[in-house]
Amino acid sequence: MKVTCAKICKLDRRRSVVTAVSRKLDKTNRRALARMTTKVFQYWKLTNSNQLAMLGLSNASHSTLLRYRHGAPMASNRDLLERAGHILSIHKSLRLIFPQDRDLAYAWMTQRNQAFHGKSPVEVISEWGFTGLLMIRTYLDRCRQH
């Protein structure tokens, strides 16, 4: 069975919040989620510190990040699963906004942007945490609608 973002997360459009369906994610799906998320981080060329910040993990959690890269299932933690869902949604939005330019789609997260007062999306997420992740996700969702 193929695991996709749609199977992992449901979009609650009334509140523009991704609700992770953690109780329905078995070990296989959480493993696929970890693999997809760490692959997106590779595409975006994020530092380990940025990756940990996006997942809401402390800088002391490098071993957790390494386990995810090597096929360990993502922890069954609602916050972590929601963050992963947002990260995958951001990636999808960037690929839809820049369908002909993968390099631009992949570099966008680390480029300074006037919409974020000259900060990069990664900086916004590092500074604001989960709220920053939602800000970037919402911004891209609105860009896709126009």
For the structure shown, list the relevant keywords.
8 helices; globular; 2 strands; 146 residues; mainly alpha; disordered N terminus; two-stranded antiparallel sheet; Xre/MbcA/ParS-like_toxin-bd; Antitoxin Xre/MbcA/ParS-like toxin-binding domain-containing protein
- The whole-angstrom Rg is 14 Å
Instruction: Give, in spatial order, the strands making up the sheet with the most strands.
Output: 1-2
Number of helices: 8
pLDDT average, as an integer? 87
Describe what is shown at a glance:
With 146 residues, this protein is mainly alpha-helical. The protein has helices at 5-8, 27-44, 48-54, 62-69, 78-97, 102-107, 121-128, 130-145; strands spanning 9-12, 17-20.
Question: What do these coordinates show?
Answer:
By secondary structure, the protein is mainly alpha-helical. It has one domain (28-145). It is 60% helix and 5% strand. The chain has eight helices and two strands. It has a two-stranded antiparallel sheet with strand order 1-2. Strand 1 (9-12) and strand 2 form a beta hairpin. The chain is globular. The chain starts with a helix and ends with a helix. 31% of the residues are buried.
